[in-house]
Amino acid sequence: MTSTDLAPIGLQAAPDGTLPCAVCGTPTTGPTTTYPVLSRILPMGDGERVEEVAPGSGVDLPTCSDCQGIAETARQIVAAHRGLVRLLGTVATWQTTTALYALDTIGQPIPGPDIEPHRLGSLVHRLAAPGTGTMYSRRFSPVMLAGSSTKLAARERWSAVDPSALADCRGGYLDWKADGRPIRALAHPGRRRCEWCGTATFPGRRVSEVWFGDLCAKCHAVHEAGGTSYEAMWEAIDPDRAIRRRRADVPDIDGVHSYSRAGGGNGEPWSHLGGIPALHEHVARLVDTA
User: Fold this and answer.
1) What are phi and psi of 69, to 5 degrees?
2) Given 179, 199, 219, which residue is the final one in a domain?
3) Are residues 141 and 218 in the same domain?
4) Number of independent structural domains in the chain
């Protein structure tokens, strides 16, 4: 049995004359970058302990040609999207690079400079942080993990990535794909209606963003602010407060109740009370005659 056979799953002994790529972990050669090491984790009997290292300590790692190519693509993307620089400043290129690393880690295509600005912003938002967690250099910097050694390298690109980091990349990718969907009417996951307004659907891209328990997003916002179903109805029929600005007190509306009390309606918001247009007209008359 060789040391290669004893290496952790996803790792191999780095061939002589090579070092692990700082990004994907595969054996490579070439110029190196020093990654600072501030402390290291040492195994102890039933646990671990953190030990500080000498000031100025670091690990020198090269970057393979494939990962250099991804970084170059990121630079080209940022050069074509100066709005991202205005938004993120000096970290725009780095965050774009790590977002592309995340895509490559899970085998997804790498976009080019022609990516649409809103899709680029979403990509960086969703995948820059997960991509950072996939880098092989994280084994050494800023904290050297127990068992880390430059004599070990990934068997294949990204094969040494921690499963939790892979899961973060997959989750971020799904969120990024969802961000690109058109807004559409989304039904409650239990096919129920909103307990307050009675709507059967709410516009959005993700169910989790428009349904909160048995309240739609609009009613949920009122609830989170400490309001009641009565106040949610007012927000629906008078969203710009044009009616309420015309008088100091809010007029009482007889018979108002939440959908959960009696049901009814056709699945449109507040249809169990006649619908928003009818309620708006009724309230406007109350104000005018008050």
Assistant:
1) -65, -40
2) 179
3) no
4) 2
**Rounded Cα gap, residues 84 and 66, in angstroms:** 24
Residues 49 and 172 in one domain: yes
Residue where a domain stops, chosen among 179, 213, 239? 179
Average pLDDT over the chain, rounded to an integer: 92
Condensed to tens digits (0 to 9), the pLDDT of residues 266-278 reads 999 999 999 999 9
Using a 10 angstrom Cβ sphere, with 0-12 exposed, 13-18 middle and 19 or more buried, the burial of residue 226 is exposed
Q: How far is Cα 18 from Cα 27, in angstroms, rounded to an integer? A: 6
| Whether residues 188 and 157 fall in one domain | no
| 120 and 13 within one domain | yes
What sign for the dihedral angle of Cα 108, 114, 118, 124?
positive
Q: Which helix (H) or strand (E) holds 127?
A: helix 117-132
Answer whether residue 91 shows pLDDT above 60.
Answer: yes
Helix (H) or strand (E) holding 117: helix 117-132
Q: Give the residue-averaged pLDDT of 158-179.
A: 96
Checking if the pLDDT of 205 tops 80, the result is yes
* Closest residue by Cα to residue 80 from 47, 108, 111: 111
CA 63 to chain centroid, in Å, comes to: 27
Assessment of whether the complete model's pTM goes beyond 0.70:
yes
The domain of 256 spans 184-289
Residues 153 and 191 reside in one and the same domain? no
